[in-house]
Amino acid sequence: MAFVGQTTFFHACSLQAPTAGLVPRFFEFRAGGDGGALLAGLRDFAPHVAVVFRPEVIPPGLFAELPAITLGFLSEPLPRGDGAHGDLKRRLGELRAADAGNFDCVVSFDPLIADTAREILPVWRSLPLPVADSLFAPVTPMAQPPCVLFVGRSTPYREWLLAPIKLEHDVLHVAFGMSGPELVELMGRHDVAINLHNEGYPSFENRVLMHLAAGHLVVSEELDPLHGLEPGIDFLQVDSARDLRRALAVVARFPRVHHRVRVRGRRKAEQFRASRVYPRLVADLVADIDAFGSSRSAP
Amino acid sequence: MSDPLRVTFVGMASEVGHAVPAAAVDGLEPMFVEHRPGLPAARLLAHIAAHAPDVVVVFGVGSVPAATVRAVDVPVVGWDVAPDRPPTLNHHPDLPYASAGFLAERAVAADYDRVIDRPLPVADELFTAPRQARAEPRALVIGHSSPRNERVLIDSKHRHEVLHIAAGLKGDALVGALAGSDVAINVRDEDGPGFGPRVGLYLAAGLLLVSEPLAPPHGLVAGTDHIEIRTSAELVDVLARVRADPGTFTAMREAGRRAAETFRASRVYGEVLVSAS
Q1: Which ranges in chain B are annotated with CATH 3.40.50.2000?
Q2: What are the chain B neighbours of A166 within 8 Å (beta carbons)?
Q3: Which of A40, A101, A293, B50 has a Cα at 20 to 30 A from B83?
Q4: Residues of A in contact with B161 (CB under 8 A)
Q5: Using CA atoms, how far apart are residues B145 and B40, in angstroms rounded to an integer?
Q6: Chain A interface, best mutation among B34, B91, B163, B236, by max A CB count within 10 A
Q7: Which of B189, B190, B175, B171 is nearest to B140 (CA)?
Q8: Is B3 exposed, middle or buried (0-12, 13-18, 19+ CB in 10 A)?
Q9: Which residue in A154, A159, A177 is closest to B162 by CB distance?
Q10: Among chain A residues, CA nearest to B85
């Protein structure tokens, strides 16, 4: 089973060790990358299934003759109707570069973008990006003061929300570029994780599940969709900079106050464990193509 | 042999901690007090009193109230360093910087015995020998994002291995990030000349410095001890060259490391603080 994507973002969403008959390998590929080299690597590995994160970055026609089942995984938010945020329109513009002929099936991380995506890439299923098994860790006692982490690029929207807490607490903000064992080690050194949307539009960021898996107390803006998570049960929901500030002040003063939320969140994360999700997803995918075939030229 | 100079340094560790040695070194006995704007002055003064310093250094002239500076009975030196946050946040209603009370009470240059305007020194323990670049070199950026610096960085982030830590990096995590990188990128937040708060740190850590023009250069020479870039495309190209041949800039890394000696904390503080004490 091949996984294709930019390591920084997607290695943490892949299967990283043989599981249930699936033998994974990750292939680094990013927008503007060498498609020929990718194709050669895949042919050499000869996977039965290739999962491609951000299918829109694959050059048109590249997988048309690849002798494997190809699954595109939409990972970026898209407009959900009229009046969308400019950032979402930009992402939709990027998605238009996708070649539907490269993929047998497409999964979206968010069911609410399926209608928008359909005109470019028909969506077969929706599920959040899974979490690599390596990121799962037990809930440990919280440090005093708690170590707070935000992983995500800077945007004016996010910085506006983060500014007060960056001043009042030790918040490590990793804006870009951490993955693999370094990311696992980073996760292990922190107790509280913040999740903020890119801009002022709703979404469900995959970092939420990564942090829950790591046993963090997740403090997040409203998630939409929730993918089964429960605010106040599995994570703390905040609706403003002031809310966020208050939540962290409480945790800093009473580190155990939300211990149960961490435990519940960690348990809920099991639903998204890569070794649990991918075998079922691949089995469904193979069965679906066996039953209904594919419009791709040479699956 | 004279007594060591006891210096209490005041600031935020994630912004200026790399400028303060963790232990006594070469006649300097340092102590760092973590202080953030808005924290009680009494706490800060208690820490200073407990250390009984010969000199106090406050990083960020306006980061403490004038009354606090005046309440210290030893010389207080202000080190002129800009806070590491986007300027667009200066009017954030939840930040003390925006409150009329904070602005009215904060110290200005005239409240200090002396104000120093030169690059941040680098703690002696952060100096390391340049290493052989890895086969897959990684570039490091430390500091907040701004629309301008992201315009310069974005293509490189998507084509090369770039780690960007926007805030909160200090202590062992800082050492680890430096040790795990081969190249450091220094880009300005806004248009206009500048030097950058971590230029000395990057060179001291033995990294290959790739920087927009340094103005003033503080003794550094583009093309000799660091690589100068002016555009996003130039940065992409430099990182591609490093990736293609990781050893190609070894001499420049070594020259940069030698140039970093001018920023060595024990040397800088020895020069500028002895006369202030």
Answers
A1: 126-262
A2: 85, 167-168
A3: B50
A4: 177
A5: 29
A6: B163
A7: B175
A8: exposed
A9: A177
A10: A163
pLDDT at A76 over 80: yes
Using an 8 Å CB-CB cutoff, list chain B residues near A156: 86, 88, 147
> How many C-beta atoms lie closer than 10 Å to residue B25's C-beta?
19
Q: What is the nearest CA distance from A183 to chain B, expressed in angstroms?
A: 11
Domain at B5-124+265-273: CATH code: 3.40.50
Residue-range domains of chain A with CATH = 2-130+273-292 (3.40.50), 133-272 (3.40.50.2000)
| Residue-wise pLDDT tens digits, A220-270 | 999 999 999 999 999 999 999 899 999 999 999 999 999 999 999 999 999
Instruction: State whether B167 and A172 contact (CB < 8 Å).
Output: yes
Structure token digits, residue A217: 């107390």
The verdict on a CB contact (< 8 Å) between A168 and B89 is no
Give tens-digit pLDDT for A167-223. Answer: 899 999 999 999 999 999 999 999 999 999 999 999 999 999 999 999 999 999 999
CA distance A237 to A244: 9
Predicted local confidence at residue B189, as pLDDT: 86
Report how far residue B222's alpha carbon sits from residue B203's, in angstroms, rounded to the nearest whole number. 13
Cα distances (Å, whole numbers) of residue B92 to A45, A163, A170, B190: 53, 8, 19, 19
Measure A197 CA to nearest chain B CA, in Å: 16
Measured CA to CA, the distance from residue B47 to residue B44 in angstroms comes to 5
Sign, CA torsion B175/B168/B148/B199: negative
| Phi-psi map region of B52: left, alpha, beta (phi>0 left; psi -120 to 50 alpha) | left
CB A130 within 8 A of CB A277: yes
Topology, domain B126-262 = Rossmann fold (3.40.50)
What secondary structure letter does DSSP report for A297? S
ipTM confidence score: 0.92
CA atoms B3, B7, B8, B14: torsion sign = negative
B14 shares contact with chain A (CB less than 8 Å): yes
Quickly tell me which residue has 């409203």 as its tokens. A222
pTM of the model: 0.93
Whether A174 and A151 have beta carbons less than 8 Å apart is answered as yes
